Every structure is written in C-alpha cells, then in structure tokens.
Amino acid sequence: MSPSEIPNQEVSRNDLVESEKKAHSGIDSNGNSQSGNTPPIESKEKKKRGSQEQSKPKDTSKDRKISGAELKKQAKEEKAAKRAREKQNQQQPSAEGPGNSRGDSGNNTIKKGVVPSIPETSVTPKHQHKRTGSMSANQQKILPLRSSETITTAAPSEPKKEDKKVALFGHLYGNPRRTTIAGAAKDVHPAVLALGLQMSNYVICGSNARCVATMLVFKRVIESYVTPPHNSLPRHLAVHLSSQIDYIVSCRPLSVSMGNAIRWLKVEISEVDPDTPESKAKADLCDAIDNFIQERITVADQVIATSAAEKIRDGDTILTYAKSSLVQQILAEAFRQGKKFKVIVVDSRPLFEGKNLARALADLGLEVQYSLTQAITHAIKGVTKVFLGAHAMMSNGRLYSRVGTAIVAMTAKDSDIPVIVCCESVKFTDRVALDSIVMNEVAPPDELVLQGNSSTSLSKWRDTPNLQLLNLMYDLTPADYITMIITEYGSLPPSSVPVVHRLSTNT
Question: pTM of whole model > 0.85?
Fold first, then answer.
C-alpha cells in the first residue's frame, strides 16, 4: 500500500465510527433527529434473533417426524369423519345449523360408534403438535359422542284425553259393568251367567225382583253342587257361592235386600252338620231358600198391601213415582176392594219405569195420569196421598230409593201432603247415610243419550270438551219428609227403623 492511500483509509474508518455513533444517538450526518425512522441494522438483528428464540419452542414439533402410531390414528380419524359426512349427506341433504344439538331434534338419534359430522378445518393436522397430538385452543377437534346405549329424544306426546268421570263421585265408578260372559270364571253356573246379564240390561229390575231371582238361582246352584273329595259341604259350598256372587257384582252392584239374603244364606250353610248326607243337606238348604222368599218377601208384600190399601179412600188422588212392585200391588188391592180413586204416575229418564206401571194399572181399569218430574209442581195439585217404594231404609230413618224420589217427597211435604213409604223389613239396613254421595250406584252415562238419534247435542258428548254426564241410580230422602213407613210389622215412624231391623235379623 502506498503512503498516499493510508490517510484515506484512516479517514473512512473514522467516518464509519462517527456515523454509527450518530445512528445510535438518532442524529443523521446533517445533525437532524431520526426518531421516527427505521432502527439501525444491529437492533433489527437483535430483535430478529430474540423473536426466533421465542418461536423456537413452538416450532420444535416441525423438526420431529410423526410416529407410525400417530399417523395411523390420524388416518383413522380422517376416515371416520369422511364416512360421517357422507352418511349425513345421504340422509339429510341440507346441513343442519350449529345450534342443532342432540336435544333439539325429536327424530335424530346418536348411536354408539357413529361419529358426527365434523368440519374439515377441525380434522386437518395444521397447528397440531406431533408429539402430544393436541390442537391449538381455537382449532380443537370435536370428539365423537359415546354412549353405552342409544340416546333417543322423547317424541311429542299426544294430547291427554279428558277424564269424563265426575270427580265428586269418582269413588263410585269402579269397574265398568259386565255386558258379556267373556272372562267369567269356569266354575260360574250357567244360570248365574244369565242372571248377571239380565240384571245388567235391566231385564230384571227392582229390589224385590232382583232378590228373588238371585235366591232362586242360588237354589239351582246348590242343587247341581257336588262336594269335592276331602272337603266338607259347609266350607266348600260357601267358597263356591263366592265366585257366583263376584260375577253378579261385576254385572251390577248388589241391592241391600240381596246383601241381607246372601248373608242369611251363608249363615244357613255354615250351620249345616258335616255329618249330614250331602243330598239331605242340599234339600234342607233349598227348602230354607223357599221359606225365606215366602216369608220375607211374598207374604210380607201381601201383609203390607192389605195394610196400605186401608189408607186409600174413595175419591183420593194417589201419586207415586217410577215403578215399585209393592206399590203396584197396593193400588191393585185397593181397586179390587171396590175403591174409586185416581193415580198419577210421575216418571223420569233414563229408565222410564213408570210407563210399565201406568200401563199395568190402566189395564186393570184404573184412571191413570202419566207425567214427568219436570211437571211435579203441576201434577201435585189435587193429590191427597203419596205412596213411594223403597230400595232400602237406613238406620237413621232416611229413604234410599230411585233418583228423583227426594224431589217428589219434598214437593209433597211443602204442600202438606202425607208421604207413605211401603217397604219390607228385608230392605232395612244398619247403615247410616247422610247424603247420596258416599253410597250410591253410578249407571253408564250413555244411558242418558237418546238411542238412535245421532243429531242430539249429547250424541258426541265424549268428544265435547268440559262435558261430563252423571247417571246416578238412587238418592236419599230425609226422614223429615216421610210421614209413615208401612212394613209387615205394622205402620211406624222413621225413627223405629233400627228396632224393626233388629227384630227381623233375630228372627
């Protein structure tokens, strides 16, 4: 190097040092500030090295190779996701919205082993660490739902059908009446099967008629009864009769007179001597049943009819309600005695029993007027006496009879007309009743609908909302509205009912 070139090199080195100092201080060669300009090269390189060092841990996974197990797992997931998408496209061409969860749809089910459709961005291995297989926070893969059993969402339930039972009388409904012999026990006697259907269809109606028919059928059951080996007649016959009684109850509840007669028969069976030959024991029981019917019903009705006929005078107007076989016998007896009187028969739906009574009395030659309960206040005018039948007499002196009887008795009492109840002692009971709600019989409500007329407002009552039909069979008449009770023991006030019941039970 020549001496002339050395000073130039020294000058250039000094210039470089000064320029670097000025750059660090933010002043250019002209003395101006460089605060808003690009930082010097050295600071850029330092920052670049710092950022590379910070990003090194994040990109360390790129330097490692993916193992075979992880590649196999990743391939399986992609394949499963692809199948799920294809299946969803086949079943539901239109994709569902993101808010459609498994609880939002009533028809979709998620089964075990089926992977739901996953967006492509969620299964791509971008941002996935090769060592742990984890995903970044904003691109985590949606895991398939697993369950041990099929998860089904409840289908929309059908609207609940309205209960057509009247809640106040809900305890009286029980099982519906039997109208066929289907399902009857094998040991039920054929005569009992026929009797139950006749009672259910009102072919045999009325307390006395039902009681007599039941006792006669039980007589046939006893006659055809054969005691099984290693059994005694008193024990096994009582059990055999229980199945017959259960069938009758399923057709229609027992009347009070039927209950009293059945209790009497069971006592008679229990008193049979086991050493008595079967034929003689059966004959004795059949004779006892005949005597019961003769004494407690047939003869009692004759005594009551003779006694009550004396209460009727010439020119009387007698009012009666529905149809009572005993009242019919009383009116016929008074007519045979040559007395001239008029009869008014008041009737009501749905049985219209009074029609048969009016027809029978008219056939005898009596003057008969037929009316419905709606016109009771008009029909009661000019009436001198009211004769009523009874389904039962309660221990507190109240009359339990066909529904509508209480209206007739109260109307007569309001008009100062004597109310005479004619009832056999077999219908007396030790029960106490204060209303018609606790103890009663509910008949099928369809009986209130006019048959054969589909244009009435009640023809489709089951499909009409908030409409319920109540068909009660009996009501309760307070003792204050009853003037006299005529029994085979004589005429007595309502307060003497417990005494007569005790006498009739002991005898």
Answer: no
